[in-house]
Amino acid sequence: MEKTISILGSTGSIGTNAIQVVHALGKEYQIDYLSANTNADKLIEQALTLRPKAVCIADEPYADKVTAALQSESIEVFSGRDGLLELASQKADVVLNGLVGSSGMEPTLAAIESGIDVALSNKESLVMAGKLIQEAKAKSGSKIFPVDSEHSAIWQCLTGETMDDVKKLILTGSGGPFRERDVKTFSTITADEALDHPNWEMGKKITIDSATMMNKGLEVIEAHWLFNVNADDIEIIIHPQSIVHSMVEFSDGSVKAQLGVPDMKIPIQYALTYPHHAPSNWESLDLLTNSELTFHAPDFERFPCIQLAYDALKNGGTYPAVLNVANEEAVYRFLDGSISFTDIPRIIESACASHEYSDDPGLDLILQIERWTKEFVVNFRP
Ligand code: MG
Q1: Cα(121) to centroid of ligand 1, in Å?
Q2: What spacing in Å lies between the alpha carbon of 74 and ligand 1's midpoint?
Q3: 12-28, pLDDT tens digit by residue?
Q4: CA end-to-end span of the chain, whole Å?
Q5: What is the pLDDT of residues 172-187, one digit of tens each?
Q6: Adjacent-strand bridge partners of 36
Q7: How many other C-beta atoms lie within 10 A of the C-beta of residue 381?
């Protein structure tokens, strides 16, 4: 039977990889919906090739251009924030959420509330609103299939196991480009240096998150919500080669790991073909040319974002949402050159400490907190 797919963020790094995966999987997989934020030209090109039922351009000023290009092609065009939520709710077997940052949260909720399964790359959804998403899942019966490579690894390691037997989750991380740089020079790190990741080709936001290691911190929170494991039982191990994608340790001391080349097409494909590992032509792992696999403890002094994320998870309530939005806005300020690399954790810490805490926020409060935090970061004088 044909499987229908919506791709949110189709012009980004995850989206374009997902289109390649679906194309390679063949006729049994059909892309029915696509969304992009601002890249109208690429969205139009994708639509003319893939012939979806509808597309959404989230950035309103581009709506006329996309409509003009697709109206005679019988491809419906949605636009804006509301259009994106409407597109995310359209009937499909799975919504692949490859959106960047906190803007991915509401589309995840919209898909789940509509009873659609979500292949989730947008970890910020769970960081912002993990509890709400779990509640919505329980109501609608939708599932989340992790796309993030570490969580895909853990998911695969947990296949056939019961959570009662799990002692801890071990998230691996490459350590990013500054693993060995003199920490005294961190305040002079430029955006170009931070954007140069040693192993993974990714979008800008996640590449900076990898350089600060906030990405790993967000992944701890993501793992907590995906697998219902406490912060104290989620460990981070630095593994510069990015071959072991993560591990699970069981009560008897047995450890399972999942390995592969660092290529997002593999976890994307598994999220779409689960519970099967479908044949593919992606590069396969050669352990003889990757024979050195090393592991180190994470450096919490060098990368304060990791501790900030653990603290936000332990404090709970509105903390993770503030952490996430403050990080996102600080990353954009670092990219535009208005703050330094070392200001990123300072701003996040300050936002978390200054916000008005609530222990069980609903969607409205989370959106309100999002606006407050954005303003806090924009006005922050380093
Ligand atoms: Mg990851």
Answers
A1: 9
A2: 37
A3: 999 999 999 999 999 99
A4: 56
A5: 999 999 999 999 999 9
A6: 57
A7: 4
